[in-house]
Amino acid sequence: MGRIEIDEIRCKGCGICTVACPKQLVKLCDKANIQGYTPAEAVNQELCTGCALCAEICPDVAIKVFR
Amino acid sequence: MQQVFARPESLKDVQTHFCPGCQHGTVHRLVAEALDQFGVQQKTIGVASVGCSVFLYGYFDIDVVEAPHGRAPAVATGVKRARPDSFVFTYQGDGDLAAIGTAEIIHAANRGEDITVIFVNNTTYGMTGGQMAPTTLVGQKTSTSPYGRNKAKDGAPIRMAEVLAQLGGVAYSARVAVDSPKHVLEAKKVIKRAFQFQAEGKGFSFVEVLSSCPTNWGMNPLAANKRIGDEMIPYFPLGVFKNEEQ
C-alpha cells in the first residue's frame, strides 16, 4: 500500500510522471493551477504501491510518497 | 504510513525558473541528495556556471560562487586550494563546459584538482536561445543551424566524458541519463560515487548527465524526454569511462 501527494502549485504539468508510473495512476487534470499549467493528479490511489518512480522522475520535486 | 520520498535538505523549497519538463530540476535533486548523504551541506561550496544553471544559489541551501562563463573549474580550483577542507563541485551546461570553458575543464581535469564536476548535456545552449553547441547532434536544427548541424562544416558532437577519461588527472568519468526512473536511479548512484572520490581525496571526478531542453528543441516535454533515449544515448553511450581506485 502506498500513497502520493502532488504539490499542485509546484507542478508544471510536464506529464513525465504519467508515463513513469507502472500502473498509470497519475494523470494530468483539466484545471490550470496558479502558474497556468495543468498539474498532475493521482487517480485510483488504492492501487498505488508507493514505488516512488513518479517522484524519482519529477523534475520539480513536486511529489511526496508515503508507504 | 511513512514518508519514503521527500525533498532533500540541501535543496530549498522554492519554485524553480526551469521550463516544464526541464531536467535540471532532477539533476539538482540528485546532487542535493548526494550532499545530504555525505552530510557535507555545511561545508559545501558549489560553483555555478552561466546558463540555466546560473541560479544554483537560489535553489541549493549551500554556499555558491558564480563563475564567469566557462570558468567554473578554474574558480573551483581556487576555492578548493584556499579551503581544502571544503567540498567543492561545479555544475555546468554543455555550452559552458564544452565550448566556452574547454580550456578550463581540460586543464583542471589534467591537473587532477580534487573537485567534482556535474556536466548537464542537453545538446544546446539553453538560456541564450537554443544556439548550436559542440554537443549538438548531427542534423539537429538549432537557431544557429537552421538546416541542421552539418558534420562537414561544423564537425561531429564532442563526447566530453570520453575526452576527459583520457587525461591523467581524472579519477572518475561517467555518463548517465535522467530520461527514465531506471536511469535516474543509476544516475543517483553514479553522482554519489563521484562525490565519494572527492570525500576520499582521490582526485578529479566528472559526471555527464544527458537531459532534455523541450523549449529549445521545439518539442513537448514527453517527446523531448523520449528523444534522449532515441537519439542521444545511441551517440552518447552511458557508462563509466574511467574509475581509478587508488
Automatic annotation (TrEMBL), chain B:
SUPFAM superfamilies hit by this protein: Thiamin diphosphate-binding fold (THDP-binding)
Any one GO molecular function term: thiamine pyrophosphate binding
Matches recorded under Gene3D superfamilies: 3.40.50.970
Protein's GO biological process: cellular respiration; small molecule metabolic process
Sorted UniProt keywords: Oxidoreductase
Superkingdom per UniProt: Bacteria
InterPro entries named in the record: 2-oxoacid:Fd_oxidoreductase, THDP-binding, TPP_enzyme_TPP-bd
Ranges for domain Thiamine pyrophosphate enzyme TPP-binding: 63-209
Protein name: MFS transporter
Gene this protein is translated from: vorB
